[in-house]
Here is the input.
Amino acid sequence: MRARIAAVVGALLAALCVLVGATPAMAADGPTAIKGLIIGPDKQPVAGVKITVTNAEDLTVNGKTTVEGAFTKTVSTNKVGVWEVPLPTGGEYTVSLDQQTLPPGVSLRNTSQSSRTVDVFTGRTSSVLFPTSSGTGPDEGDQPSSNQALQLTVDGLLFGLIIALAAIGLSLVYGTTGLTNFSHGELITLGALAAYFFNNILGWPFVFAAAAAVVVCGIAGALQDRLLWRNLRRRGTGLIAMLVVSIGFGILVRYVYLFFFGGSTRQYASFSGQPGIELGPIVITPKAAVGAVVALLFLLATAYWLLRTKSGKASRAISDNPALASASGIDVERVINQVWILGAGLAALAGILYSLSNGVNWLEGFSMLLLVFAGVTLGGLGTAFGALVGSLIVGLMIQLSTLFVPPELKNVGALVILILILLVRPQGILGRRERVG
Here is the structure.
């Protein structure tokens, strides 16, 4: 058994070293490009908007130096609002939107930000967003309105529910095992990829595809705990060592996704685009509304499991005192495995709901991981309800911050709020203060 565990840990660490060393080369295999999506204030794609990309510095391509401004390409958004410009190499580029090509009733939220400078790495695709509003002139478009704030508040709550689904699973695992699992984001990605496989490849209806993906991810969580983490716990591996293993395991799984799925972003066959529904000043797509209802139902079911069921109460007892819970007759390992199944299933659902609007990508779980950790830390480590509250705050701050900062910096607002709250209450909003002595 010890030899098997040592082999597993050694293989993970070896894979970590190989992948870290190979990351630049693997990244260089992808396309070098800039892309974006133009969505109107009614949540419908805007077609025919002209985007111009120009190199903002001298570039070297195949040994030849191209002077600043020599590379220029203009494209228009397609019928689903998407635009993309292939680039000769990485470097600094200026992306400009022609405001004259915007349709009547649509303007930039901040007309002074019609031009952006972006650093693009060779072999990577960078995204540039131009937020729109219903203002018809520069003065109206430059100032955030109450309707915009209300719309962003709704969007923030919807996004917060998605973060909460993943954060609660992460928090439950931390509460019962003490593991800070940096590979949790790969469970989010697995849910999205599995739903894509069942929906797009096998042709299943999306509802059945999503349900099957949640089941698959739950089984993957159970197997992950039984084959890896349970053996490490029995061996007495320290939490820091297990944290390092989770990092290596996450990198390994992430590049397995890249190998089989590729680096492009794809859409579910059932939801390539949807018009928005106007509810007064609020515009929401049907898939976002249904997703919010589904997220709420699963969050309520999780709360019921924690508060009313025997296994849920046992998981809370293990979080408080594992040794006392074991002495009282609770099968600690069985309950921990159930927590892994629940956490993986919730993470899969978060990945599916996130992909409805943002597409399926091999890196989506990794990109959400920081926000998930922010929600868990803000609410209080190890508390499921704290993770819910913290995630809603993070989602709100991310969306509302776009009233004042470019969308590329929207995560900064949430992290600033995280820092400020933890300075006042280090244990988090619903966390318990620990005694030191």
